[in-house]
Amino acid sequence: MADFYQNGITTTLHQLSNRPIEEMESELLAFSKKRPLGLLLPSLFSELEGEAMPEIINHISKVPYLNEIVIGLDRASKEQYQHAIKFFDKLPQHHRILWNDGPRLQAIDSELAELGLAPKELGKGRNVWYCMGYILATGRTESIALHDCDILTYDRSLLAKLIYPVAHPQFNYEFCKGYYARVADGKINGRVSRLLVTPLLRALKRTVGNNEYLEFMDSFRYPLAGEFSFRRDVLNDIRIPSDWGLEIGVLSEMHRNYSHNRLCQVDIAETYDHKHQDLSLHNDQGGLSKMSIDITKALFRKLATQGFTFTNESFRTLKATYFRIALDFVETYHNDALMNGLELDIHREEKAVEMFAQNIMKAGQSFLENPMETPFIPSWNRVISAVPDILDRIKDAVEQDYEEYRY
Question: Could you name the domain of life of the organism this protein comes from (predicted)?
Fold first, then answer.
């Protein structure tokens, strides 16, 4: 059971009671009559063959209030796309699949690339961006939820809680971030959030000085959660990163575009577990190591746009400050784990902290060497300005793929 404490400057919506899911879904169904609701699922084909995705679809098929489900499918051949059509056919709601590797969407991507308007990296950011364009094209939904497709502890109550803040007609939220306890199998998970993001934000407050942006970011209980919801008008202006900085980048864009009373976070699950990335201690181009570098650079870029100047000396000071704060957090989490009868390996935690500290320097060096790096995908407003019929063409490509391969 959560407390009711409001931390920082972002509204927190708690789970204060065990409200029946049927009651909440009944309200959402009523809301959907005036404000149609949708779901965005960025997926790899491999996830369709995993343990989590079939169970997620079983739960979603029972959801009564969704007007549209948009699935972004990555790394799929023609045969795998056809398999995906059959896989998602069990959904009674209107749904479509963006076959991102198919020739039609690939042709559109190539055209946008020639204009410098396409995502520069493969991955979740690119997948989500094209799905957002398709949602703008269809105009079928006003409020949309997005969650990952590898959630092993999924229950449809997660979706209801996630979309409720942007669906309720008396709420004025444009964006909602989900949060939850990353505890599973008797262990505390979420190392990048616990041991990198939070102590790094605290270290930045000490070294560059506290400011409203850092206070905003530090308000989020789980800033790296892949679950959020938003109103459709958010899609026009948002510029999202194509690298591992997606979640931090989305929060930064919300901070740039909206006042605090239009944003919130909500407790969506008592337990949450999904597939875990390897720490990649000896490979900074993969796993949590690359993720930590991308996230750290995303924070540096945002602070630089606010006028902060970084040097090699400031990065060394930041690293030392972070290291001390993060080690203190290891002790804190260890005590929390013991009190709750959970496991926490101090050696592994401190190895992660050591790697993250090294990667702060790597991220800083990369930032200094290439300060003009812009991993952000252009906003859809900009793309539409350059190619006015682009949304219709994306919609047509998706429909043509579906009609050609659904039998």
Answer: Bacteria
In this predicted model, what pLDDT tens digit does every residue of 24-55 receive, in sequence order?
Answer: 999 999 999 999 999 999 999 999 999 999 99
Confidence of residue 331 (pLDDT cuts 50, 70, 90): very high
Quick one: which of 134, 117, 47, 38 has its CA closest to 84? 47
CA-CA distance, 333 to 338, in Å (whole number)?
Answer: 9
Q: What is the pLDDT of residues 265-275, one digit of tens each?
A: 999 998 888 76
Mean pLDDT of the chain: 93
